Q: What sequence folds into this?
């Protein structure tokens, strides 16, 4: 999946609309840009002139030089920080630390007390979120090469240095680019980690992590961009906290220009799919999913040199909890799945629709979303066997039919006892379950 994500992201790196993802800077208001405000400190000839308020501009993310600090008390190497509205004083301590530690300094040390006084006068609207940064002689810090280079170097330290352990080696082959370079061992784009004690076995030394999956510095911004694109434009809601994402994996890419066009086409369809709330008969993952059908009906996306990776996950703060990762799914396999779905729906059509009391005809189609009902625990958590079934569907591996039948019959029994007195709900329930 990491390799597929890297290839996909690299094909998109020249898209002008996606440059925000390829910046070392992070978007501080990701997903809520309309609520973002920027408090800008004006500095002229190292003299502080005051603060003013600006609306957040997504295209200026590379200029702000924001990156979430490590740890609760950590600070940014440059004085660009998310403001804690409940405790502005805590934010100020981080700002002053950045101002004092930054080399070269942007203001004289005597000016810091003046900045503190003006910062304490700021008021924050509870409806908005705020980022503080500085302009030097009319330019954001990200417009100066020296600060940008300093910021980038600091941003990548976490990929080779953690808990006093270093995993970095020169003259090694990068697993993604195939080129000889300095490689890092703690690149955790999709939650991969080897530096936590609970993951170490048989005397494993975390400093040797670069031997497992060596990633070069040049590959990191492309991977990070891929992660941002996956989360913000490709991933779609499955149900509850569960999400899914489909990523193309270009196996034999010889024509770079064609690859860029195909990647862009896929991204546009994936982004539309992620935002769609319209239910359709072609849906298979959930009731509004259309991406699999788009793949098998597009000459560009069903090419023999493209395979697909499918991910089911939960995002817990900055980390991924991956429930299922399926790689190398051929377009022909997707086509076979959708054909089987259509045949089954036609065969059991007489059982999968009903008329409500007001005369409305309701039809239930086969989707993985509806199938989940048989695998939910009492606290609405999916059983591991559900993801084994999904893997079986997309890979063609055999699944224990008796296990599935047992789950269906048990669900029927429990729901019949619950709804036997309600004719419409009882019929609806039978319709929802019989097609499987």
A:
């Amino acid at each position: 999946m990491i390799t597929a994500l890297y290839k996909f992201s690299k094909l998109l790196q020249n898209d002008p609309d996606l440059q925000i993802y390829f910046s070392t800077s992070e978007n501080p208001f990701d997903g809520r840009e309309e609520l973002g405000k920027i408090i800008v400190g004006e500095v002229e000839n190292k003299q502080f002139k005051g603060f003013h308020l600006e609306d957040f501009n997504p295209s200026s993310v590379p200029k702000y030089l924001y990156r979430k600090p490590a740890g609760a008390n950590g600070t940014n190497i440059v004085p660009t920080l998310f403001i804690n509205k409940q405790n502005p004083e805590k934010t100020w301590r981080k700002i002053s630390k950045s101002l004092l530690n930054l080399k070269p300094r942007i203001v004289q040390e005597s000016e810091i007390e003046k900045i503190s006084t003006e910062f304490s006068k700021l008021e924050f609207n509870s409806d908005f979120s705020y980022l503080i940064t500085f302009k030097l002689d009319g330019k954001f810090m990200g417009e100066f090469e020296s600060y940008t280079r300093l910021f980038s170097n600091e941003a990548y330290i976490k990929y080779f240095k953690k808990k006093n352990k270093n995993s970095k080696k020169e003259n090694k082959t990068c697993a993604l680019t195939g080129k000889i370079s300095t490689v890092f061992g703690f690149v955790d784009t999709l939650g991969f980690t080897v530096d936590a004690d609970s993951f170490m076995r048989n005397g494993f030394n975390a400093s040797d992590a670069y031997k497992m999956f060596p990633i070069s510095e040049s590959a990191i911004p492309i991977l990070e961009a891929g992660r941002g694109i996956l989360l913000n434009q490709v991933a779609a809601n499955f149900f509850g906290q569960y999400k899914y994402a489909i990523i193309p994996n270009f196996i034999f890419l010889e024509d770079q220009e064609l690859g860029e066009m195909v990647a862009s086409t896929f991204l546009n369809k994936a982004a539309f799919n992620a935002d769609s709330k319209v239910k359709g008969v072609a849906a298979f993952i959930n009731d509004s999913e259309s991406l699999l059908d788009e793949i098998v009906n597009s000459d560009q996306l069903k090419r023999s040199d493209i395979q697909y990776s499918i991910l089911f996950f939960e995002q817990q703060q900055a980390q991924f909890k991956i429930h299922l990762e399926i790689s190398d799914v051929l377009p022909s396999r997707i086509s076979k799945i959708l054909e089987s779905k259509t045949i089954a729906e036609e065969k059991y059509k007489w059982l999968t629709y009903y008329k409500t009391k007001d005369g409305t005809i309701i039809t239930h189609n086969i989707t993985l979303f509806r199938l989940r009902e048989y695998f939910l625990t009492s606290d609405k958590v999916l059983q591991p066997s559900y993801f084994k079934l999904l893997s079986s569907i997309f890979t063609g591996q055999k699944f224990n039919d008796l296990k599935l039948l047992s789950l269906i019959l048990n669900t029927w029994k429990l729901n019949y006892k619950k709804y036997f007195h309600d004719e419409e709900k009882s019929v609806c329930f039978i319709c929802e379950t019989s097609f499987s």
